[in-house]
Design goal:
The structure holds 3 protein chains of 3 kinds.
Chain A: H1 4-25, H2 29-54, H3 58-85, H4 97-118, H5 124-146, H6 150-170, H7 176-204, H8 209-215
Chain B: H1 9-40, H2 50-60, E1 63-66, H3 71-90, H4 106-126, H5 130-161, H6 166-174, H7 182-198, H8 217-220, H9 226-251, H10 263-289, H11 299-317
Chain C: H1 2-21, H2 27-46, E1 57-61, E2 70-74, H3 76-99, H4 112-125, H5 129-147, H6 156-182, H7 190-195, H8 200-218, H9 227-233, H10 236-261, H11 267-289, H12 294-321, H13 325-360, H14 376-389, H15 396-409, H16 417-449, H17 456-459, H18 466-484, H19 486-500, H20 529-550, E3 555-558, H21 576-591, E4 595-599, E5 610-614, H22 618-639, H23 646-667
Antiparallel strand pairs in C: 1-2, 4-5
The chains are: A mainly alpha, B mainly alpha, C mainly alpha.
Chain lengths: 220, 323, 668
């Protein structure tokens, strides 16, 4: 399994982890959305490469969905939404960027440590893909936990979905139906959260989730 | 690689050529970056040879020394220059397996740069002005993140190559065992960030300003004049060259002559080296013109990202091939 | 062996003889001169015992517990630590011949100083638990008495109190550890412990107890709280001994108990020691950076270096547990070499701070500055020490850190995933602490010695006497020597390493070409400080000569430029606090919950604006303060027992008796 096929998929999957970490590093909304688009592009490349080496043409559809929806449609829509809402352009974080990144590295180490011994029977490529996918999922969760801004949370959620798709593409023989359902679920989540954004905005004049918590009496 | 062994005349000559080459080329690289930057901004800009003229002018001028300056202030420029020169001479540029390259591995080269920085920061504090202090203090703050970042990059490289010797790393990178590895990409980016910060380039520091409160390196050497300033400037030129050679040696080792090859190989090596430097200079100029300077307290995060990349590079090494 | 024991005994005699002598003018040079001679003699006597080839000497003296006696043994490990102790001791004695001249409280120092030295020597020589614990406690008490020498100074009594508490706690832990090691047969002799085998659980407990006991003496985080209080409070030559030498005796305790006595290690022992070491190294240097008191900064920095030594030891444990003896040899060599190096440069730096204290009466860096013009020798030696401790090549601090890095780089061949991932992170922590140490010592040296004097005392400082400067020059020279010729030191350490790793050692270094340091193989890594030093010296001299010959060589003195707005007042300089501000902002927010408060005066008011930075010691607040308040609460409640009637006391005794009897009944 060595050689070019392995190297490229290693590079792309690792690149997805790196872009996930880059998402954590961003402190501006627009650059966050741009990096998320990059995330989706890398994902679609990774999936397309998997389709090529596994000779599974249906994966190309998944790659196209990722490229079309996540790399173009959703970032553009979010861009417009941010502009229309006039949301404050910086992202407020719960924890500082440095400690978050450090924690993120710890998560990557954890997922490698968990995945590699578990999947010892699988071939090197699947093994590695699963480890990277788990890190992307965990980093997405971390992003959702540490961002106050609703847009940041949405982006975190979608990067988490990307991690799931990477795992699905890495595990050979995943049927197309599931892919589409995953893509749909993302779309639905996007719509729901989009409406959610508008509603918060209408009612509280901000998209800072903290305000919601205060409203519910969770915080003084 | 033979350590010591017979002191062949050829080896001494190659090491000597390396020493002079880095010294001669260094001002040109900085001049090139300045010229390209000016052209990109639609200015005509000075000739790439201007740094040589600057050095000559500074060397001729008298030194104006502050009343409160001590011997440390006068020794530091020569010491800093010598340390960086030695470090630059130990990095394989056009040939691997230099006569003395085994006397300091990558870790030692990082630490040698630390020595230079230590004395420069002390010199900044010596006269007892507020500008010198601000420069030294910020320089040490940057370094406190940049140095570990660089060491982590060095770690990744030496774990990959199984050696901390630059010559061995270069040979490893030329071999067939490398492959496309995400770790290498991470290390490359980390080293780039460190190189930008250590050379006080945009977006970390602005080499062209002289009177901004955000400046770091220039504030530290504000009190220097005449031949002392010439030494400091030359050391800064050499440092930029050093980082460019380091990146070239590790990531684009093509064209380097191995020890003991003939004169033709050495000439090809020198030509390739000059080509790589030119490309690096142009790339740096393009990068600098396309980006804005960041706030001082954003820099540690920027460098922290480099540290994380280095650490991540080390971790990802374990994913595929058992080390 | 006999000679060394006699010499140590003579130190005890000197302590007794110092009591009547200490008020006479001849007493001070006599005592310090004597200790200097004895320490030098022990160094010479211990040197041959370093190599493993020499027969290990053991003696039983009819002292202490009747019928058992006191057992002493001199093996390479003990010999190495004897060397470290007595090198530091000799330097401190020599320094004190001059430094003590201005000491007011000689009668509270002279008797305890030789006793302190003797006790540290005995710890290392001990071959049974009784002698070890007795001399350990003696060492603590003697150093406590020395800390309390200036008991009128503000803060000293508090420091002494905390020190005494932590020392007793440490000894208690060690006592329990020895109890476990001795097992049920009560084999309190070290050979018996070496042969006995413990159950896994007891072994783990021993590790924890030793880490607590020896670690509290060495100053690992979070048990370091006494160290920065006690070390600076003592007179400077004693501070040097405590920081440079006594912490090394604590390291010796750890090595002796864990590597030698408690049987084969498990791999996760290494994890614990590595994590402790990494945390200690980073937090120690961050604490040090925040200090403005020169001696306290140095004391905190000792904490960092202990962390580095622990990292080496932790690596050695991990390698040993996996049977990688060469890796263990490399890591142990690094740790032991750092022990030697740290004792050299930390003693030197404390001597320097003592010289500054003598010359100006100030320890606060904010009142110093410009001493480079007034105290040339102190400045030059202190600068050497600063460069060495900041791990700058070609000095010695760099070599031991370089060796530690080399040990880290062979860690991927460890089989456990936890270690594989932990060790690079520890490497990052080590690199971070080295870089922060450089910032710390730029601050310490730059604010104290450079710039313009910030007080009258600093402006009128005078260079100290010849004994003090002599001691500093010798130590600085040793720092340079150990940096450029590390091969000799590494070879000398090989005997010690062999005894701990069952025969593995680094390759013979002295035969390497050009006296290079090549720990594993030439293709892997090599370092040569000598060539670097020669290169740097030659190039800088040649360049300076050329520039002065070909360019200008005129110098004009003038006011500072300072961007055209020079201010003659020295308070416009950067201070220690402002130098540390960027690092405080970057790291302090997490590590110390640092916060800044600005008070701006009303417009048109002439009040100054104030900036206050608050730092919180989280270890103290969250660990020690709750313990202290719990104890205060409990003792407050128990206090009521003092005010009972006879009848109630009798009832109490009766109740206890019943409790014991019923316990006995239930037990059977």
């Amino acid at each position: 399994m060595h050689g070019l096929a392995f190297d490229v998929s290693h590079l792309l999957a690792g690149g997805l982890v790196l872009v996930s970490l880059m998402l954590l590093y961003q402190d501006r909304l627009y650059s966050l959305l741009n990096v998320f688009a990059l995330h989706a592009v890398v994902l679609s490349l990774a999936v397309a490469w998997q389709a090529h080496i596994q000779e599974a043409p249906h994966l190309f559809v998944t790659a196209a969905i990722a490229l079309g929806f996540k790399a173009i449609l959703i970032p553009v829509a979010l861009h417009r939404m941010v502009r229309r809402l006039g949301i404050h352009r910086t992202i407020e974080t719960v924890v500082g960027i440095g400690p978050t990144m450090l924690f993120g590295i710890g998560l990557v180490a954890l997922s490698i440590m968990v995945m590699l011994p578990v999947t010892e029977q699988a071939d090197a490529l699947t093994q590695e893909d699963l480890a990277f996918a788990l890190s992307v999922v965990l980093l997405g969760l971390l992003m959702m936990v540490t961002r106050r801004n609703a847009v940041g949370q949405v982006v975190g959620f979608m990067s988490l979905e990307n991690g799931l798709i990477l795992a699905a593409a890495g595990a050979k023989g995943m049927p197309l139906v599931v892919e589409i359902s995953v893509a749909f679920s993302v779309l639905i989540a996007f719509i729901v959260i989009g409406i959610f954004l508008f509603r918060i905005r209408e009612r509280f004049d901000t998209v800072d989730v903290q305000v919601l918590e205060r409203f519910r009496g969770e915080q003084p | 690689m033979a350590i010591g062994g017979d002191l062949a005349i050829g080896d001494v000559v190659v090491q000597g050529v390396q020493l002079t080459l880095v010294l001669v080329v260094a001002p040109f690289l900085t001049g090139l970056v300045r010229t390209v930057k000016a052209r990109l901004l639609r200015r005509r800009g000075p000739s790439p040879l201007q740094p040589y003229r600057d050095l000559q002018r500074l060397l001729r001028k008298e030194v104006v020394l502050a009343d409160s300056a001590s011997w440390l202030f006068r020794v530091a420029p020569y010491l800093v220059f010598a340390v960086i020169w030695v470090a630059a001479a130990l990095i394989p540029t056009f040939a691997t397996g230099l006569l003395f390259s085994w006397s300091a591995d990558m870790i030692a080269i990082v630490a040698l740069l630390g020595t230079a920085r230590f004395f420069l920061a002390l010199a900044g504090l010596d006269v007892g002005t507020s500008f010198g202090g601000i420069g030294s203090s910020r320089e040490m703050m940057f370094a406190s993140v940049a140095e570990p970042a660089m060491l982590m990059a060095v770690f990744t490289l030496s774990l990959l190559a199984g050696s901390t010797q630059l010559s061995s790393v270069a040979n490893f990178m030329l071999s067939q065992h490398v492959g496309l590895r995400i770790s290498l990409g991470l290390v490359f980016v980390a080293l780039l960030i460190v190189a930008i910060a250590e050379n006080a380039r945009i977006p970390v520091d602005n080499p062209a300003t002289h009177l901004e409160l955000t400046m770091v390196h220039e504030a530290m050497v504000l009190e220097y004049s005449g031949r002392h300033l010439a030494m400091i400037e030359a050391a800064a030129f050499l440092k930029l060259l050093l980082y460019a050679s380091l990146l070239a040696c590790v990531f684009t080792p093509w064209g380097m002559a191995a020890a003991g090859e003939g004169a033709i190989a050495y000439l090809v090596g020198i030509a390739a080296y000059l080509l790589k430097l030119t490309l690096a200079g142009v790339a740096l100029a393009v990068f600098e013109t396309s980006i804005a300077k960041m706030r001082v307290f954003r820099v540690p995060e920027f460098l922290g990202a480099a540290l994380m990349l280095g650490l991540l590079g080390t971790l990802l090494l374990f994913v595929t091939r058992s080390l | 062996m006999n000679l060394i024991l006699v010499l140590v005994a003579s130190l005890f005699l000197a302590a007794i003889a110092a009591m009547p002598l200490c008020r006479r003018p001849v007493g001070r040079p006599a005592v310090y001169g004597f200790t200097f001679a004895v320490c030098t003699a022990i160094v010479v006597a211990a040197l041959p015992a370093l190599s493993a080839a020499e027969a290990v000497a053991a003696r039983v003296l009819p002292l202490g517990i009747p019928w058992i006696g006191a057992h002493f043994r001199l093996d390479p490990l003990a010999a190495f630590f004897l060397l470290v102790i007595n090198l530091g001791g000799a330097a401190a004695s020599f320094y004190a011949i001059g430094y003590g001249r201005h000491e007011q409280a000689n009668e509270r120092i002279l008797p305890f100083f030789p006793a302190f030295l003797a006790a540290m020597n005995l710890v290392v020589l001990a071959d049974d638990a009784f002698v070890f614990l007795f001399s350990w406690e003696l060492m603590s008490l003697a150093s406590w008495a020395l800390v309390m020498a200036h008991h009128h100074d503000r803060g000293t009594q508090h420091a002494g109190y905390v020190y005494l508490l932590m020392a007793s706690f440490g000894t208690l832990c060690l006592l329990l550890a020895f109890g476990l090691l001795a097992g049920t047969h009560g084999g309190y002799l070290f050979p018996a412990m070496r042969e006995g085998s413990l159950p896994r659980f007891a072994q783990a407990l021993v590790l924890v107890l030793v880490l607590l006991g020896a670690g509290s003496k060495a100053g690992i985080v979070p048990l370091h709280v006494w160290l920065p209080l006690a070390h600076p409070a003592a007179p400077s030559h004693v501070s040097a001994l405590m920081s440079g030498v006594m912490t090394k005796v604590a390291i010796y305790g750890l090595i002796r108990l864990i590597f030698d006595l408690s049987g084969p290690p498990e791999w996760w022992w290494g994890v614990i020691v590595l994590v402790v070491g990494a945390v200690t190294a980073v937090l120690g240097v961050l604490y040090a950076l925040m200090q403005h008191d020169l001696k306290r900064l140095l004391a905190y920095h000792t904490v960092e270096n202990i962390g580095i030594i622990y990292i080496g030891l932790g690596l050695a444990l991990a390698f040993l547990a996996n049977g990688m003896a060469t890796g263990a040899a490399l890591a142990l060599t690094a740790a032991l070499f750092h022990v030697l190096n740290h004792s050299l440069f930390k003693s030197l730096l404390f001597f320097g701070s003592g010289a500054v204290l003598r010359a100006t009466g100030e320890r606060d860096m904010e009142h110093l500055g410009g001493l480079i013009h007034r105290m040339p020798v102190t400045t030059a030696t202190f600068l050497t020490g600063c460069a060495a401790i900041s791990a700058l090549p070609p000095l010695n601090g760099f070599v031991s850190e370089w060796l530690t890095f080399q040990a880290i780089l062979i860690s991927p061949s460890l089989p456990q995933w936890g270690l594989k991932f932990l060790v690079p992170a520890v490497g990052a922590a080590l690199a971070l602490s080295a870089a922060l140490a450089a910032a710390c010592f730029v601050k310490a040296f730059g604010i104290t010695f450079l710039g313009r004097p910030r007080s009258r005392a600093a402006a009128q400082a005078q260079e100290v006497d010849a004994f003090s400067t002599g001691a500093m020059i010798v130590l600085a020279a040793l720092c340079v020597l150990a940096g450029v010729l590390p091969s000799l030191a590494v070879d000398a350490l090989s005997g010690v390493v062999e005894t701990l790793t069952a025969g593995a050692r680094l390759p013979q270094q002295a035969t390497m070409p050009w006296l290079s340091l090549i720990p594993v193989s030439a293709a892997r890594s090599s370092y040569n400080g000598l060539i670097l030093l020669v290169f740097i010296a030659v190039t800088s001299t040649v360049v300076a000569a050329f520039v002065r010959r070909l360019g200008s060589h005129t110098v004009r003195r003038s006011a500072a430029w300072d961007c055209g707005t020079p201010d003659p007042s020295p308070i416009t300089q950067y201070t220690a606090g402002s130098f540390a501000q960027p690092i405080r902002r970057v790291f302090g927010r997490t590590a110390f919950r640092a916060s800044e408060h600005v008070e701006m005066p009303e417009p048109a008011s002439l009040e100054p604006a104030r900036l206050r930075a608050d730092l919180r010691d989280l270890v103290w607040e969250y660990l020690f303060a709750p313990i202290a308040s719990a104890i205060t609460y409990a003792s407050g409640r128990i206090n009521a027992l003092q005010f009972l009637t006879i009848r109630r006391y009798l009832a109490l005794v009766f109740a206890v008796l019943l409790l014991l009897l019923s316990g006995l009944a239930l037990w059977q």
